[in-house]
Amino acid sequence: MNPPELREAIGPALAFVDLLGIAVFAFSGALLAAEKRQTLVTFIFFAVVTGVGGGTVRDLLIGAPVFWIHRNSVIFICLAAALIAWAAPSGLWKGRALVWADAVGLAAYSAYGAAKGLAFGAAPLPAIGMGVLTACLGGIIRDVLAGEPSILMRAELYVTAAALSAALTVALIAAGLPMALAAGIAAAAGFALRGGAIRYGWRLPSYGR
Amino acid sequence: MNPPELREAIGPALAFVDLLGIAVFAFSGALLAAEKRQTLVTFIFFAVVTGVGGGTVRDLLIGAPVFWIHRNSVIFICLAAALIAWAAPSGLWKGRALVWADAVGLAAYSAYGAAKGLAFGAAPLPAIGMGVLTACLGGIIRDVLAGEPSILMRAELYVTAAALSAALTVALIAAGLPMALAAGIAAAAGFALRGGAIRYGWRLPSYGR
Amino acid sequence: MNPPELREAIGPALAFVDLLGIAVFAFSGALLAAEKRQTLVTFIFFAVVTGVGGGTVRDLLIGAPVFWIHRNSVIFICLAAALIAWAAPSGLWKGRALVWADAVGLAAYSAYGAAKGLAFGAAPLPAIGMGVLTACLGGIIRDVLAGEPSILMRAELYVTAAALSAALTVALIAAGLPMALAAGIAAAAGFALRGGAIRYGWRLPSYGR
């Protein structure tokens, strides 16, 4: 498919992924605010930045209109995530539920970002970069703002899983698969890798060690 | 009013707010450089980043031409703020004068940012976000660059005052008020809230406390 | 020359500077990842962010298409820099070679950034800012992400050398010199200043000391 066809295909096939990714990431931002004992306003700020940060930078880079400016729904989801995190009993999010939800968001969002990159004319390597950015940048900005060491500086397989999902999306679309199928297979592979990292503690080797 | 009419109305009515906000924020950036015993070049960098940071991100997000690229005046104001902060006796800025000037800038700039967001077609919730960004982001970037805890992480009513001013601007324009009147009322309310926070130490409750 | 002529002139004359700057900065990003004992994925992320960060923000600000989105070569150079830094014996980069390569990149890249700013219609002062950004921002983002004190907070003549190179480029083009000559003279001056700072420890005075 060429860019305009891809742009057509992206709407119905992957719109739900967008909202899922936003909700999960917004929620993870609000939970960091909770950990830091912040105010509701900071909950909202972190939810918005984490929820839309990666996709926003992607849209600026590929020259697309920023996806949340012309509708209320995206910011509304972020507000709702912040309010739920604020109001719910804090014990509720202990355990691994959020880590797994984040893994789903990571895998799906990186496939989506790579596909959207191609749809707006990015070359293959930059399109893979767009997928990684979409999935990872919101969390990185969140961590920098909170003064936390970012996911970037940990040896966990996180950015790597996003890169696998994004690269497979680009490769499978280049191989002629329909976008939704390509993105689905790629997201499943990225999720499997991230899931293995969560379950079995898979890590990348660090330099010089 | 619809977006093109808003865009028309924004010019004469609110242009001075732009310059006031830039000058105040640029100055606060230069003063942080002074506190950190930096060089003149760092004074200038901080003045520029703090003065134009929020409005720059707003313009990128709403798809407007970045407001300071095609004229010299904005960068000139930032340079002047840096030089004044560098040359003036440092005792001059002790006390509360700058905090109050910052409160004026915060209230006016968030009203202006929300109005400009609407004028470029942003939906109401994102337009409120544009107001908050315009008023707060420059200072946040300044604090992150300097390695300071950002205003975001303090319980003071700061972002909240910007949000009030931006939300009122959007609500009053939706209610049919002329833009300058809407922005004026909204900025006054935001300034009153921020002023109360400065004067009486009003704070938001923190999570779990 | 007017902006369209400048845009014409920039292609053949200065394209190699682009690639040199990207390679040097990408490599310096990867070396910081090595110092921090990071994984290969982090090497790549740092190489890309440092290599393209400054030019990316410049292109967004001046409204140019982001320079690395529509071709594979730029990201490919960053990947190669990351892999070389990962694979080569770490003793190889001890000493001053990289500092001098960075000085070449700094001087050339700030001249290039200022010229590209003018070519897209920036006024003179903002165009100088574009040159400084192009040369310095990638490294600043790299340092913030790694939790290092950024070059901004050191008294070394670094940003100053970029500012000299960018300002001379703008002044000489305004004086009627052909772009390649203007940029060449300006870059040589910026390199001389930065070189003096490396060789003789030239510093700027800090505030209040």
Considering the chains and any ligands shown, give keywords for the structure:
homotrimer; 209 residues; mainly alpha; 7 helices
Architecture blueprint of SSEs:
The structure is a homotrimer of 209-residue chains.
Chain A: H1 3-35, H2 40-62, H3 73-87, H4 97-119, H5 124-146, H6 159-174, H7 179-200
Helix pairs in contact in A: 1-2, 1-3, 1-4, 1-5, 2-3, 2-5, 4-5, 4-6, 4-7, 5-6, 6-7
Structural description of this entry:
Three copies of one chain form a homotrimer. Chain A is an all-alpha fold. The first copy, chain A, is 74% helix and 0% strand. The first copy, chain A, has seven helices and no strands. The mean pLDDT of chain A is 87. Chains A and B meet through helix 2, helix 3 and helix 5 of A and helix 2, helix 5 and helix 6 of B.
Average pLDDT figure of chain A: 87
- Largest interface: which pair? A-B, 31 and 29 residues
Number of strands of chain A: 0
* Rg from alpha-carbon coordinates of chain A: 17 Å
Helix and strand content put the structural class of chain A at mainly alpha
Q: What proportion of the residues of chain A form beta strands (DSSP E)?
A: under 5%
- What is the molecular shape of chain A? globular
Number of DSSP helical runs of chain A = 7
State the separation between the terminal residues of chain A, measured CA to CA: 44 Å
Largest sheet of chain A: none
Question: What's the SSE pattern of chain A?
Answer: HHHHHHH
Question: What is the multimeric organization of the chains shown?
Answer: homotrimer
Q: Regions of chain A with pLDDT < 50 over 5+ consecutive residues? A: none
Helix content of chain A: over 70%
